[in-house]
From TrEMBL:
InterPro entries assigned: DUF4238 (IPR025332), SEC_C_motif (IPR004027)
The name this protein goes by in its record: SecC motif-containing protein
Gene3D superfamilies, A to Z: 3.10.450.50
Source organism: Ruminiclostridium cellobioparum subsp. termitidis CT1112
Length: 384
């Protein structure tokens, strides 16, 4: 009998999607750019025809590789959730939760690199869409790098769990969600979106109720290390805003209302963005789509990526108590003051020369070239 050819291939594994489904195996799925929300069986979600196929590869060979991991990772996630619930009723210490999760960190990172969002980014690196599979395989098969990346997150990041008692967390088509906790060191064109670097928060989806959180830097006050943090609806929405802005095409949720509330916060950006130079002309250097948690950093990033530095002149001679030039109706000191200060420190010295200084930076400043990133353990250059 001929071997079955899997045409519809999931870029987020079914064994993970089921933890966001209801008792009837249904999830609510959203097309993030159009805002359309609909119900579907989780087995039909986060799927694309021939996702991992390429004429140069043996039929289904990539799908078979991922299937081996999927054969045990679903049960592993269930054990992690069971351990969290045991901790909540006092049957085990919180350290057991981290222990249960840490042994599968490499698999979580592999699932991140195979995700739909990363495949979208890889398309921008190749002229032929199918060639994105080769970019993905290069990442997934780099075992030493993934191993060191996993060790860095486990050993150098704080760990916690966040909980939505009403199953309101969403899941993006990037699988893992990363959030910058500061704008420093965000000028890399690398595909791990700063996992392993300082001042970032990594969100690992377990279910609509639980996310695991690894972080370095100042997290929101409601996320405390070494405990299960129960979030209110406002806090859940803040986390979901970060998650949905890691998406490119879709996200899903156990609940329709949580999706609809957060879709209005989605901002579509290309995987590649260019930075405005000193004369207002956009430079060719690309910046990854970035997600920041704190308003100050979001504003600074917008100043750097969307507003040409010569337009910053409108902020000159503005008193701290004057109305902010961005027309927010707030005082300058309560609006763009800190963000502009951050942006100017980063880019102003280079804007006049029309140079982009971040492609190759001194290791002493906690940054390295893209090529070096792939070759050395993360913790050796991250400054953690």
């Amino acid at each position: 009998m001929a071997e079955q050819y899997v045409k519809n291939q999931h870029y987020i594994a079914q064994c993970l999607l089921k933890f966001f489904a209801n008792s009837k195996d249904q999830v609510f799925e959203a097309l993030v750019e159009s805002g359309k929300v609909y119900s579907t069986n989780y087995k039909n979600s986060m799927v694309e025809r021939f996702t991992y196929e390429h004429p140069a590869l043996e039929r289904n060979i990539v799908e078979k590789y991922f299937h081996k991991i999927e054969s045990y990772i679903g049960d592993a996630v269930q054990r992690i959730i069971d351990t969290i619930e045991k901790h909540e009723i006092g049957e085990c210490p919180f350290s057991e939760v981290k222990k249960a999760l840490s042994q599968y960190m490499r698999e979580f990172i592999i699932f991140y690199y195979r995700s739909g969002a990363l495949l979208t980014e890889f398309e921008f690196e190749r002229k032929i869409k199918a060639d994105r599979v080769f970019v993905m395989l290069k990442k997934v098969m780099n075992s030493p790098y993934i191993r060191e990346l996993s060790k860095t997150v486990i050993n150098y990041y704080n760990f916690s769990v966040i909980k939505s008692e009403n199953n309101e967390f969403i899941l993006s088509d990037q699988y893992l969600a990363s959030v910058a906790l500061g704008i420093k060191n965000r000028f890399f064109n690398i595909s791990n979106r700063h996992i392993g670097l300082r001042d970032m928060m990594l969100l690992i989806p377990l279910s609509g109720k639980y996310y695991a959180v690894f972080s370095n830097g100042f997290t929101p006050k409601y996320i405390l290390s070494n405990k299960v943090n129960i979030l209110n609806q406002f806090q859940v929405d803040e986390i979901n805003e970060a998650i949905i802005n890691n998406s490119y095409t879709k996200c899903i949720s156990y609940r329709q209302d949580s999706l609809q509330r957060i879709l209005i916060k989605f901002e579509y950006k290309s995987p590649s963005a260019t930075m405005a130079g000193g004369n207002g002309i956009h430079m060719g250097t690309t910046l990854k789509k970035e997600v920041f948690f704190f308003i100050r950093d979001k504003k600074a990033w917008k100043l750097i990526t969307e507003i040409a530095p010569y337009e910053w002149d409108r902020y000159k001679n503005i008193g701290r108590n004057d109305s902010c030039p961005c027309k927010s109706s707030k005082k300058y000191k309560n609006c763009c003051s800190d963000a502009l200060c951050i942006a100017m420190k980063i880019i102003a010295p280079f804007a006049a020369k029309q140079q982009f200084p971040f492609a190759q930076i001194d290791k002493a400043k906690d940054t390295v070239s893209v090529d070096t990133v792939i070759e050395m353990p993360i913790y050796e250059y991250s400054g953690i």
